[in-house]
Design brief:
Radius of gyration: 13 Å
Helix content: 55-70%
Strand order of the largest sheet: 1-2
Length: 88
């Protein structure tokens, strides 16, 4: 797989987040919004963990980082753009 730039990586991560959370939303639907759009949708803790695990592997290959570095990057991305976790 060809390496992507940071913007493309963000788009892939956000699209995957919405997909795993079961929402029919994509990056293009929230692009340019200045409000905290990530509070409008929710995901479960299990969905969030699945997304973080997938994203860590994806970031690891795109930036050629080790597992720990990629997990830190994914954690920061989750803090900034991750959907709200819903209680069961």
């Amino acid at each position: 797989m060809a390496r992507l730039d940071k913007r493309q990586i963000s788009i892939v991560l956000i699209d995957k987040m919405f997909e795993l959370a079961g929402h029919d939303v994509r990056f293009k639907d929230v692009e340019g919004r200045q409000d905290p759009w990530y509070y409008e949708w929710t995901m479960t803790e299990e969905q969030n963990k699945e997304w973080r695990d997938w994203g860590t592997k994806f970031i690891k290959t795109q930036f050629r980082l080790n597992e720990k570095q990629a997990a830190v990057e994914m954690g920061l991305f989750d803090l900034n753009y991750g959907l709200k976790i819903k209680n069961k």
